[in-house]
Amino acid sequence: xxxxxxxxxxxxxxxxxxxxxxxxxxxxxxxxxxxxxxxxxxxxxxxxxxxxxxxxxxxxxxxxxxxxxxxxxxxxxxxxxxxxxxxxxxxxxxxxxxxxxxxxxxxxxxxxxxxxxxxxxxxxxxxxxxxxxxxxxxxxxxxxxxxxxxxxxxxxxxxxxxxxxxxxxxxxxxxxxxxxxxxxxxxxxxxxxxxxxxxxxxxxxxxxxxxxxxxxxxxxxxxxxxxxxxxxxxxxxxxxxxxxxxxxxxxxxxxxxxxxxxxxxxxxxxxxxxxxxxxxxxxxxxxxxxxxxxxxxxxxxxxxxxxxxxxxxxxxxxxxxxxxxxxxxxxxxxxxxxxxxxxxxxxxxxxxxxxxxxxxxxxxxxxxxxxxxxxxxxxxxxxxxxxxxxxxxxxxxxxxxxxxxxxxxxxxxxxxxxxxxxxxxxxxxxxxxxxxxxxxxxxxxxxxxxxxxxxxxxxxxxxxxxxxxxxxxxxxxxxxxxxxxxxxxxxx
Length: 492
Description:
Blueprint: H1 2-18, H2 37-45, E1 52-66, E2 87-102, E3 106-118, E4 145-156, E5 164-171, E6 193-201, E7 206-216, E8 224-225, E9 229-238, E10 244-255, E11 274-285, E12 289-307, E13 314-329, E14 338-346, E15 356-357, E16 382-391, E17 397-408, E18 436-448, E19 453-464, H3 466-472, E20 481-491
């Protein structure tokens, strides 16, 4: 049995790399492996220091957003032409420091984080629409959390010797392509959970069984979880099907009536009451085993119940989503171009009065990877047709060009934001409007300057469609939106 467990343990490492292969943009790898300055210093002096891990990273990002609504400013909405402030430029700084120790049967890891924002006009918590028991928080923006604990967990077990392990504490959660559960690494704060996770691993599959609560950032206070908002489930992966990675999952999100007002001033709105259960699966090609082709297929169905507001009755949840991706890599052409296409669909609610809620719950995703890099939409009531071209001109450089055309799946439902909320007026449900939202074009380039430093830049333009034209026609008109960023990352 031990050889099988060892093989599966190695397979888990392969899986970690596989998840980035088909991404629209993947940062270039460093020219040489880098363990961290502190680790290299101590490990060179004492081989027993290999059990220890000390290090961190420092990230700076400047963003400029034009004709994009500013959270907390009344009347400032996406794609507004004039009349309100819709331009925002700011600097985001994130510093993470970690220490870890690994023994044969156990390990421990602690990571502190400082997330700073400069000149950000967005409110940390706009409290719109108003929630009883909570208050507006202008602060330094929704991505500021001056100093806090990002991760702190212990693991018990050794999959080379025994199929069962336990990981408990504050930790990041990431599954599949992060469409439903992700670490949200693009965000200046990121996402973590106070979670208990048991992993069962054998020769046929590996499965995580977990339960816990999302941690809610609150600048100036120690981050705590919302104890009325629980995420539980099982996520299983098998490599036994030839040329294919098979994944299946069952996820439960249970939030009570008290969840929405549990914190008086969170960095972002808390959920309304819901008991939503998601059952789904994912098929993905193993790298190189279909020649130059690759694909991903994923689908999920949701049932349970959902309350739209703090006081409204619960509706029966009946929603679904599916994703189809494919690509071809020209392996013998300069820059190894990969041309890809995808279609994403998430259901909307076609009748608010029928007692059924048909809008898909996006759960805890990393939406920045999909549906356009400007972070304007989520996997809720949306149809997305995307094309992308990725290039690697040199081993240290990655370039991506991405286009996304977006439609509402159902005009009887809202046009949701990237965080899953509804846009403020004049956006509303307008069943007679055209469902074409618009098209986004994005270009991103990254370069590994050294084995410990990387730079990245990107630009995106959103061409508004008929739905936006009609929505803002009586509010001063609409305007295309622009977004640009420059980012540096240093690991140490």
